[in-house]
Amino acid sequence: MLALHGALSRNMMRATRRFSSSSIVTLAFRGGLPQNAMLARALRATRRAFSSSSIVTTEITDGVATITLNAPERLNAMTVEMGEAFEAAVGELREMPPTELRAAILTGAGRAFSAGGDLDWLLERHRDSPTNNAKIMRDFYGRFLSLRTLEVPIVAAINGPAIGAGFAVACACDLRVAAPDAKVGITFVGLGLPPGMGSTHWLPSIVGPQRANELILTGEVVDGAEAARRGLVLRAAEDPVAEANELAATIAAQAPLAVRAAVRAARLVQEEGLEAALRREADSQAAAYGSADLAEGVAALKERRAPAFAGV
């Protein structure tokens, strides 16, 4: 866990430096601004400069940050650019004291939470080398899993499809609520890939090894109501963002230092073995990217047909 946090912290330091000249993160503060006036002015300037073309937005109300994946035209598919924006946003939130940040919500803009990895980016990996892909995947995971370095409870508000890596990131949150008809699943094998983004670590700890194996090996997709029945999410709600806000507000009303300590303690247990799992997943995916099955899986998804995997 310490190795993971060290790697994530180094990634966030690089991302924060990029953030100063980037145009892909919005920070909009409502309610209490940071106490440092110079920083407050800088954050207001950032909001004005970046609000028109951001792919990750962060808004803070009454001590609760809402991080939104904001590429609705492609169902919030995950790219390197989005990952860098996400990591930069997390880095900014990490600097906030407990008096100003008490909980966080992760959701998606439009009709999806996240459709998972961007298909064109996956095809780029198909043309790259396994050695290079292993490093790329470890970095890719780290950018999105940087949310675990926020020392406040994180609630995933699954407003629509959360598929593959998209659902894996939701599983990395401390709590999850979903719309009853939101489709969720760890669907990597149906694309020609072994699981990634910590899927093989998160799922067994959430639903147990047998249920996790069923979801991972079949690529089954279930709706939010069924996900709640199976314990994949805390509950289903017609308005998951409102439900997440209500839950976050209840948490925010508790003693902030005690809550942060509880989060740290819980994650120490939850993250045991995570670093090794991420390495295994990155290496496994890197080896699979060059396969004909991966190319077929992506083509079939784009063409909306069943894949014909040959095992090569």
List the helices and strands and how they pair.
Blueprint: H1 2-19, E1 25-29, H2 37-50, E2 56-61, E3 64-69, H3 80-94, E4 103-108, H4 119-126, H5 130-145, E5 154-158, E6 162-163, H6 165-171, E7 175-178, E8 183-185, H7 199-207, H8 209-218, E9 221-223, H9 224-230, E10 235-236, H10 240-252, H11 256-270, H12 274-288, H13 292-303
Parallel strand pairs: 1-2, 3-4, 4-5, 5-7, 6-8, 7-10
Antiparallel strand pairs: 2-3, 8-9
Helix pairs in contact: 1-3, 1-5, 3-5, 4-13, 5-12, 7-8
Keywords:
single chain, 312 residues, 7-stranded mixed sheet, 3-stranded mixed sheet, 13 helices, 10 strands, disordered N terminus
Structure description:
This protein is an alpha/beta fold. 51% of the residues lie in helices and 13% in strands. It is built from 13 helices and ten strands. A seven-stranded mixed beta sheet has the order 1-2-3-4-5-7-10, sandwiched between helices. Helix 1 packs across helix 3 (80-94), helix 4 (119-126) runs antiparallel to helix 13 and helix 5 packs across helix 12. Residues 1-53 have low confidence and may be disordered.
Q: Record the strand order, biggest sheet.
A: 1-2-3-4-5-7-10
Q: For this entry, what is the oligomeric state of its chains?
A: single chain
Structure classification: alpha/beta
Radius of gyration: 19 Å
DSSP helical segment count: 13
Largest sheet: 7 strands, mixed
What is the N-to-C order of secondary-structure elements (H for helix, E for strand)?
Answer: HEHEEHEHHEEHEEHHEHEHHHH
User: What gap, in angstroms, lies between the N and C termini?
Assistant: 35 Å
Provide the β-strand percentage band: 5-15%
Q: How many strand segments? A: 10
Overall 3D form: globular
Low-confidence stretches: 1-53
**How helical, in percent, are the residues?**
40-55%
Mean of pLDDT: 87
InterPro entries: ClpP/crotonase-like_dom_sf (IPR029045), Enoyl-CoA_hydra/iso (IPR001753)
Protein name: Enoyl-CoA hydratase
